[in-house]
Design brief:
The complex is a heterodimer. By secondary structure, chain A is of the alpha/beta class. Chain A contains seven helices and ten strands. In chain A, α2 packs across α3, α2 runs parallel beside α4 and α6 crosses α7. Chain B is globular. The chains are: A alpha/beta, B mainly alpha.
């Protein structure tokens, strides 16, 4: 069961069991994540929140299959993660569109790899570009788009590949404040339709409370799970509602302690 | 008012000239150069500074080129030179890609090739020309092979670098969209490396015109380099200058061809592309 009670078709469950990850720096082994155990339900949007350098991106990269854990297990629907794969779509902070492909070709990239017929690919691209409001920009190249538009393309590209999980690494971190809020609203709207399993990394508490079914707060480096908040708010959220602000201030208090510790 | 596109187009050098005015300006500069050249060769005759055959005026040179063209002599030389450049450069480019792409992609291949390249590369290619003649004779083979040899190194090195500097995030993005190794290479690495590979190819084109002249100085019966050397033997300065100018034009055309390809293949790099 997801926190919202709805799981979109083909959305998967992520289990992290006793994850430990260390990096060797100058011959010394530095821990980045310690004993992270967590279950992300199918159809749930889970935010990983923590001060910068707390290992939240490392955690996401392990689920994406870009990094292997030093110890512990990461599973998708019970199967261990051994590398990147199309069932786990990734949206990066830096957009990472293929600059030599048009907007539509970027969105079609995944289906084309699978050898889907061209007409079907065009259809898929049109559908998801419509969803992110970029249909009339289909023939443009990424260089001609603004940051917010690029990130919409990246989201459409991830969705068009039909993943069961979407991993988002501070996807709106490079956008200006206004665009950022618009994008959060878009994502929330899309999620109400798609009900994907989404793991969303952010250091913005407001963003986490706005989007998440659950917020996982990590401690400052090395990252451990400090607390998990279930956000019991309606799916369409109001940033100025008193309950929203209550969550925000509660989590802020918790994170402040961690930020202070990080600066010690 | 300056828009964002203007700023991108201007860069830090201020506003660019309108196309027509830029062309007019270029024309004026060329005309000034030709007049100065005419003037100095005229002065040599007037003041009797030295034998005027050493500095033929531009009109004499142009006349010679036209005469060679009309008599049909010029085309044989042009075709000989262009043929050698085409075969030699193409072989060099294919070799550079065939070895450079895998070397950029796979460390073992790179470790195998790089030491050899690092030993040979600092040797000025011209130092190897006599060896090519010893090995392959003074015929076509040595000339073509020499162009291949000389152009291989810069094209190989830019190709290796181009592949290595591909943004690893692009590879991650492709892998999480389900791309297998071969798909990553052909659909991501190649197009991402293309801009720099084309830069290397431009270098290669320029270099092939650079070295062909010298190899045509030695034991050639045709070619623009031969025409220059032949002119030297008989103090035919208009022929020497004429052949040099034709070579310059060919090099310019070769470069323009690659620039056109770049414009077409890399139109995604320009914000004003449609």
């Amino acid at each position: 069961m997801s926190a919202t009670g709805i799981a979109g078709p083909g959305s998967a469950r992520v289990q992290l069991e006793g994850l430990y990850k260390s990096f060797s720096v100058d011959g010394r082994s530095l821990p980045a994540l310690i004993d992270v155990s967590l279950e992300v339900q199918a159809g749930e949007l889970l935010c990983l929140l923590g001060p910068s350098g707390c290992g939240k991106s490392t955690l996401l990269n392990i689920v994406a299959g870009f990094l292997l854990p030093t110890r512990g297990r990461a599973l998708v629907d019970g199967a261990p993660i051994t590398g990147p794969g199309p069932e786990r779509g990734v949206v990066f902070q830096e957009y990472v569109l293929f600059p030599w492909l048009t907007v539509a070709q970027n969105v079609e990239f995944g289906p084309r790899l699978k050898g889907a017929p061209a007409a079907q690919c065009r259809q898929i691209a049109a559908r998801y570009l419509e969803m992110v409001g970029l249909r009339e920009h289909a023939a443009k190249f990424p260089v001609q788009l603004s940051g917010g538009m690029k990130q919409r393309v990246a989201i459409a590209r991830a969705l068009a590949n039909g993943p069961s999980i979407i991993l988002m690494d501070e996807p709106f971190g490079a956008l200006d404040a206004q665009t950022r809020e618009v994008m959060q609203e878009e994502l929330s709207r899309i999620q109400r339709v798609e009900h994907k399993t989404i793991v969303f990394v952010t250091h913005s508490i407001r963003e986490a409370v706005y989007l998440a079914d659950r917020v996982v707060v990590l401690t400052s480096s090395p990252g451990r799970i400090k607390e998990v908040f279930t956000i019991k708010l309606p799916e369409a959220r109001d940033r100025f509602a008193p309950e929203f602000i209550r969550y925000e201030s509660e989590i802020t208090r918790l994170v402040k302690v961690e930020v202070a510790r990080a600066h010690e | 008012m300056s828009t964002a596109t203007d700023l991108v187009q201007w860069g830090l050098r201020g506003p660019s000239l309108p196309r027509r005015r830029a062309l007019a300006l270029r024309l004026v500069v060329v005309l000034v150069f030709l007049s100065l050249w005419s003037l100095s060769s005229g002065l040599v005759v007037l003041l009797g500074l030295f034998n005027p055959i050493f500095l033929a005026g531009p009109w004499l040179v142009l006349g010679k080129v036209i005469q060679l063209a009309l008599s049909g002599q010029l085309w044989g030389h042009v075709i000989a030179t262009l043929g050698r450049v085409a075969v030699g450069f193409t072989t060099g480019a294919l070799l550079a890609l065939a070895l450079g792409l895998p070397a950029g992609q796979w460390r073992p291949v790179r470790n195998l090739l790089e030491p050899v390249v690092e030993i040979l590369r600092p040797i000025p290619p011209l130092a190897m020309l006599p060896l090519f003649i010893v090995w392959a004779g003074i015929g076509e083979t040595s000339k073509v092979a020499f162009i291949t040899y000389a152009t291989f190194f810069p094209m190989f090195l830019t190709t290796v670098h181009a592949v290595r500097q591909v943004d690893p995030l692009l590879l991650r993005a492709a892998a999480s969209l389900g791309a297998r190794r071969a798909q990553v290479f052909f659909r991501v690495v190649l197009p991402a490396a293309l801009p720099e590979i084309l830069t290397g190819i431009r270098l290669g084109v320029a270099l092939s015109f650079f070295v062909i002249v010298i190899s045509e100085f030695i034991g050639a019966e045709q070619g623009l380099g031969y025409l220059i050397n032949d002119g030297r033997n008989f103090f035919l300065v208009p022929q020497m200058l004429g052949a040099a100018i034709v070579l310059g034009l060919l090099g310019y055309a070769g470069n323009a061809l690659v620039v056109r390809l770049e414009r077409h293949w890399l139109r995604w790099e320009r914000p004003s592309a449609s």
